[in-house]
Amino acid sequence: MRSIFKTGALALAATTMLSGAAFADAHGVSGPLRIFSDMSNPAPRAVMEDMVARFEEANPEVEVELVITDREAWKTQIRNVLQSGGADIVNWYAGNRMAPYVEAGLFMDISDLWEEGGLTESLASTQGSMTMDDGIWGVPYTYYQWGVYYREDIFEELGLEAPTTWEEELSNCQAIIDSGRACYTIGTKFLWTAGGWFDYLNMRTNGYDFHMALTAGEVEWTDERVRATFENWAQLIEMGAFIDDHQTYSWQEALPFMVNGEAAAYLMGNFAVAPLREAGLTDDQLGFYQFPQINPDIEPGEDAPTDTFHIAANAENVEAAEAFLLFVTSAENQTLINNGENLGQLPVNANSTVDEDEFLLAGFDMLSNNATGGIAQFFDRDAPAEMAQVAMQGFQQFMVDPSTLDQVLMILEQARSRIY
Amino acid sequence: MFPRPIQQYGPAARVTYQTLLPLALLVWLIPLLAVIWFSIKPGEDFTTGNYWGLPTGEAGFQGITNYLTVFTQSAMPQYLWNSVVITLPTMFGAVALSCMTGFALGVYRFKGNLLIFFMFVAGNFVPFQILMVPVRDLTDQMGLYDTRTGLILFHIAFQTGFCTLFMRNFIRALPRPLIEAARVEGVSEFRIFWFVVLPLMKPAIAALCVLIFTFIWNDFFWAVVLTQSPESQPVTAGITAFNGQYRAMYHLMSAGSIVAAIPPVAMFFLMQKHFIAGLTLGAVK
Questions:
Q1: Looking at beta carbons, which residues of chain A come within 8 Å of B229?
Q2: ipTM for the complex?
């Protein structure tokens, strides 16, 4: 199956690379290009600098001026930079996080580039999350999957299979609890981990579109459908699926429960794999499955936080900027920057190759073929920051004491009517 | 004499003192001991939940590996160098300026002397958090944001206030007849400063240098506000680089913290006498 996929991919890669190159050459790009990046952590920083160097080598007429800003500081600076017209290209995030800048007319609509550059095919999996108000506002350069990482050896010992339906999930979980373990480890001290659980339960209970409407503030939190999501969650909480005292652990501090076999699984992003491997779990002990289906009529939506590049609406060197975006998303560059030595995440271009890594391959396959509902960015990126804070506090409180559901929903609804 | 020496108390009080003191010391040092302990443990111990026990892996303690990693796999040498480049000029600059301002305010009687002095002192009462945004904007507009020069200039400006208070009071306490005698001899004011006052200020200068060195080396706030790249960040801010985008490397962060703490701690033990003099100078009239 993989070999077919790979040959197909290669053929496609060749064609897209050709068309991409042709598109870039047609303009004969030159001049200064100002890029503002937030890839400030050491590894991403090296990737960014290398990417610029390779781009300059391929386009000797272009002089790139690269400004790298601290990732957190950038969140408050991007508006200034875009408004002052100092940048041609900026880093940002996909999904609703783009909304303030799309609505303010600060990002350039690059739908044409997507059409002509063949991106609508090669980047199909993320096109939805880059689209807003009938325009496409940027290109992704990396993402990673979320899903359930589990102890295959514990599942085998108990004679369990990775669940695909909610009934299997509940019966699996009961078996794990009966063996004296928790089904899931989680550390909700910094709240966002609970946001992941809500994302998946809501997307499986009500679907991707409903989840997007809810995070965009269009649905009341006291809605019966939201309540249904929480009821599914309460099923797990009340049977004792989660570890005790999870509100006192960070996500890292919750890892030992899984390593030591006190919990069987962890709903987490792919960045959890590296520390789990370091702690001595082999790939035979560690497995990955997509969050199980709850409502069979609903297409699965997935969380895959995506980092992006955008062209500023008032960019001065649009041609060079477009060439850079095509360069970033090309299959070849995607394969390189997302490999294990660089970002260690998933390439966004379907024609790229993924490192021979069980989890990256599983994630790449899942997001490319089985995220038909849509790709969400994660709760605290999809909802406005203030709403996300209140809501995730509510999720934590609910996880600690599910009987407070009515109170939690009321607080969330009040916040919704105030914030949006 | 107050407090009464412990030897003069009864045996019960002495035994209580002797048992409680080491205990209190231990409690006081636990955070530091934890950092030292973490810095020699392998990273996977934090994922297996083995925070306090002996290392579980076959490799055992990873102290040497951790410290080597800190020096070879990260920008730590650069950060340390930045700290030196930021701290030493600030120390010289602030102390040199305050020697001069202290001399002017301490020796000359002129209108507004007290007002100027109060303005130097008043700067110390402004909480620096409220300066954060304007100072950041200022450095940005001057093209000094994310440069070591920007940080040095700001530190000199901010520290000079405190140093002036210190120096002015010290010079005030010097015997005035010395200066007057020099004037009678016809020595120029600058030579009085250079040959009469400055040599007398040596203990104050030494004490201030030690204080300012530790202040600036340990500064975290302004390092984070005014710099952001490995080319300009001092070591206190650079340690956060071990906090990856997703994951905190506790063992490397601990090792890095120890390395970063060594210069000020060494400074303290080598210059203990001056340090304590710096804290008490002028306290007793």
A1: 40, 68
A2: 0.71
